[in-house]
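Human: We require from you a protein record containing the residue sequence and its fold in token form, and nothing else.

Assistant:
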Amino acid sequence: MPKSSSFPSGHAASALAFATGAGLEQPLWLLPTLPLAMGVAYSRVGLGVHYPFDVVAGAAIGAGMGVATGRLMRAGDEWLGATTHVPESGWPEPGELVLVVNPHAGHASHLGRARRAMADIGLQVVTEIPVQELDRLDGVLERNRSTPPVVVAVGGDGTVGQVADRIVGTSAVLGILPLGTSNDFARSLEIPIHAEKAVRLLSRGRVMRVDAGRFTGDGQRPRHFVHAAAVGINVHFARFATRADERERLGRLTYAIAAAVALRERPVFTCEIEYGDSKERLQLMHLAVINAPIFGGFLRLRVPGAGTDDGTLDAIMVEHLPPRRIMWSALYPAVGAHRRIRGIRTLQVSRLTVRPGASMDVTLDGDIAGRLPGVFEVIPRGLRVITPARRSGARR
């Protein structure tokens, strides 16, 4: 036992503060964190470095700080939201929303919570459209020419991209409830992933203009994307990951297994690319044309130097590499390192023409939605989106 006072226990305070704060954000997190925190507190007595009362007092102080900090943060969110709402001109009727819902999104089960949050703050849903019936949105936009509506994409990047495809270049405003699996476009715009916080943003955020990408395949109508277009590995990934039967059977393991399947096959294709005054012939296993910088879902990996309103697209070209080198290419951004990897090239372009040796599928925001040959180009600031009023890295 200690020979002098060691009051209170800092270890117990820190552990209980973290568990309490995490539990306030997501109550289910208490299940793993609270027993761990209690274990930390008990260990201080078991190791003989604190009296029991030191630990009890430290735990009480930590839990109190966790509660107080959570309340301060929520109060700060509400104050910022109330004082920084600076919409553009032409804001639609307050509180009226058009929802485009993907019932098969990765976190579609949270839609009930989102609906209750909308009702609590007075947001009214005037029309709800399943993403499978997206053609109905054209009629809604036609009827609301004088007061452009807020069209809320409820789902992941694929749902957001399909909605954006219909409203790019119009006066309609895009809102996002990120209930998908990765939600990379929402993360790029710093939109909260938490359902209730994303709903609050719909009433208190700022309408800002961001870039959109456009793909035009030979003989096909132009299609827009918000996060990324891709050829090669991602197509094999999408074929597996977007199958409803596999997603129902595998649940959260779907993406991991789809990635393993795609990496195992690693198809190689020959293509000619043209950008600016340059023309090259390449052998690649993957080509990605990225509009928004964040990828990898909760890992929040980032394309160095990319932005959502910089007027350019970032092309990433991957040669036929072993899986370990592909994993390194993802690890470096995760730890903030900007090292060049042999076999991976990047280009920043406003227009990129790709002509493969044979026609190939293209994914737009994770869904197979076109075929090469074709042209990728940026639509500078072509999309109006509700974002946080203060965004790091946003162009003013």
